[in-house]
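Students often ask why we bother predicting the structure of a whole assembly rather than each chain alone. The short answer is interfaces. A chain on its own may look different once its partners are present, and contacts between molecules only exist in the joint model. In this exercise we take two input lines together and write out one structure for the complete complex. Read the inputs first and try to guess which parts will touch.
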Amino acid sequence: MKISSAMLRTFNTVHTWVGLAAGFALFVAFYAGAITVFHHALPLWQSPHLQEGVQSLADAQRLLDGVLERHPEARTHMGMLFPGSELPHSIAYWQDASGVWQFATLDDLDGSPQRPSTELADLVNQLHYSLGLPIAGTYLMGLVSLLYGVALFSGLLIHWPKLTKDLFALRPGRNLKQFWQDAHNVIGVLSLPFHILFAVTGVVLCLVFVLASALDPLVFDGKLMAALPAALDTAPQKSAANISAPPGSLALWQARSIEAAHAQGIETFEPAYLKLANAGDANAVVEITGVSSRALGPQGSIALDAASGELLAVQLPGQRDVNHATLASAYALHFGEYGNGVVPWLYFLLGLGGAFLFYSGNLLWIESRRKRRQLQQSRTATNMARATVGLCIGFCVAVSAAFVAAQVFEAIAPGQIDAGIRRTCFASWALCMAWAAMRAPAQAARELLWLAAGVTAAVAIAHGLVSGEWFWSGAARGPRTASFVDVIAIAMSIAFAMLARATAYRMRHGDPNSVWANPAVRS
Amino acid sequence: MWSRALAGVLPGFFLAAALTGLVAWCAPGPWQSALVPSLIFFVPAWMLLLGGAFLFADGRRAWGWLSAAAALAFALLWALKTLDWVR
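Now the answer. The structure tokens for the assembled complex follow.
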């Protein structure tokens, strides 16, 4: 394919402006997303008592009975995590009379609007999909994902003429812009399939209901909303018969669902969560979602008549319809929940690599506007450098600060943990941005990187002090333990310190005609 | 620049929507059975049109071609539905 130079210039402009508009939000989404890959480990790290062991099914049954007895709203529709799936203990959830989700555990049958022990994991996840902003944040991230798709398309076109020749070129040396350009290109090209995947599924996850309502009258004759439940759920929609019936039990549903999976030739089916409609009614239906191995979309579900355990519908890997197969695969591909234990690590690295992609994009913008023959740099370039340092490195500081705060509040005021980690996160982020706004960009970068190194090391230290479990003792016990978080924190702290040293080296020895030079040289 | 960008946003949206309709209705079985892949298809389709609009030499051509393509695709979808060739 031949691309004219005028076309290349056009797409360069498109790539630059789309990248600048979406880059900051995407840095946040990728950095927080990389950590969210390990969301199973965060509750264990936050609340040491979760490590005492996995609840029994009998405990979960007592939770189910207690919730149904106390909360009539839960009888219409409720959900429940099987113990040992996402968390060692079971959580039940339902919408109260005003539509607010309530979460209950065996220790707290009354329920509360915040899931217990997952405050930190929830905060990091919310930062990932909404920047932590209420409602509008999700739509904003949907638009950002759309721009991200345009940036990928335009970036690929610009790079197309040199794609194969420069694929493995990483040229360190005098031309630093070339080096950053090479790094930006190689990460972009090698992880392109995953970036396309994240951009597309990101838009779908954030904007699905907006898009569905827009497309419904245009192409689906207004019948889309009526068709969605059958496409997304497994259980048939049944209204209550208003005749009471035996409620059924978790043990029955678990046994029946595993039996049904075996009957379909599926070797493993580990129930993860259930949805129960019209509990206690003759038309009560339970839908069990579980994980099977050896499938791209490992999650499948089985719908049972709650009272008798009679099989109503099945959507399992290998024999589900197109809608369910696509949904399960898209979900697994976005969240990295398929394959073996290497996949989460790959997604973690892809997440950090993506964050680097957006950071380096900003650096390239600054570098291409550098005045090569004078110390004084343009105000735009300086402010862009300040914004990049304050927002991006400041965000790394803020996330680590929220982790430290989680341990502090767990120790002194467990009831305040949700508010505490949120305030710590956003306040420290704002302080970092204010600091970067006041300092020369190079100084701010070096100082905030050292701060990030310190606060991230404090993540492991705070956990050791509060829980008494230090990273060297627990790390050997495998990836689903709290110390695993500490080990990653220490590795990232070392990486931040190395970046801080490199920034300081750049200040002293690099080209003085740059925003990244030591400002003392300039005066 | 802005004119081509808007061509991707507006007529691009309607073209992507019509193509989504064609994918859903032309897929084997009733359109409901290909609902999820069709809805997902819309996203990369619109993304490509948002970026692809800049391949036109100027805004007028981008608006013209994308609008014409959208109208044609909707007409085709309408004809297929009306003739009952797809369900």
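Check your guess against this: The interface with chain A takes residues 1, 14, 17-18, 20-21, 24-25, 27, 31-37, 39-40, 42-44, 46-48, 50-52, 54-55, 77 of chain B (CB under 8 Å).
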